[in-house]
Amino acid sequence: MRTARYLIIIVAAILGCSDSKPYNTAAVSGRVTLDGQPLAGARISFMPVHTAQDGTLSGPEAYAETDTDGHYSLRTIFKERGATIGRNRVMVTTRKLEAPPEADRVKGVKVLTPERVPNKYSTEKAALHFDVPAGGTSSANFDLTTR
Asked: Domain count of the chain?
């Protein structure tokens, strides 16, 4: 009986102390420009490419907002530094939306700032991709054009 109790304590300690997660992240930062000029105040999102046959993602989405010089440093939706290692679809948008109060949902969202980035970069079907290396990178740069 005493051995079983010790075994339960050991298993609980091993499981409880495990920091493992089903995905790996690495630090990612870079710069975004539009027609050669820094793109300030843009939201950049990295979305892991679906890898499982059941359609699940290989890890969480990561995002950041660019500073006045267009620089950014990603964090996952769980506030971890970086992005999921491997292939990611990248989306860049400058549109800022304001959701109405719960009682006002029928009126829809209000656009606070218009989109300055072409649809080929700013929609969920964006054609941009980036392969996040296991060692991370500080040169995930995107030179966008309006043409």
From this structure: 1
Residue for token pair 């109790």: 5
The pTM of this model reads 0.74
Sign of CA dihedral 121, 123, 50, 99: positive
Q: What is the DSSP letter of 109?
A: -
The amino acid occupying position 74 is: L
Check residues 130 and 102 and name the one with the higher pLDDT.
130
| Residue span of the structural domain in which 132 resides | 22-144
Q: Residue 93's pLDDT is what?
A: 94
For residue 23, what are its two tokens? 């995905």
Torsion angle of the four alpha carbons 53, 127, 74, 138, in this order, in degrees rounded to the nearest 10: 110
Report the pLDDT averaged over residues 35-58.
83
The CATH code of the domain that includes 136 is: 2.60.40
Does some domain include residue 133?
A: yes
Give exposure, 97-117, as e/b (b: 16+ Cβ within 10 Å). Answer: eeeeeeeeeeeeeeeeeeebb
Is residue 5 predicted with pLDDT exceeding 80?
Answer: no
Cα angle 122, 127, 131 (rounded to 5 degrees) comes to 110
The Cα 41–Cα 68 span in angstroms is 7
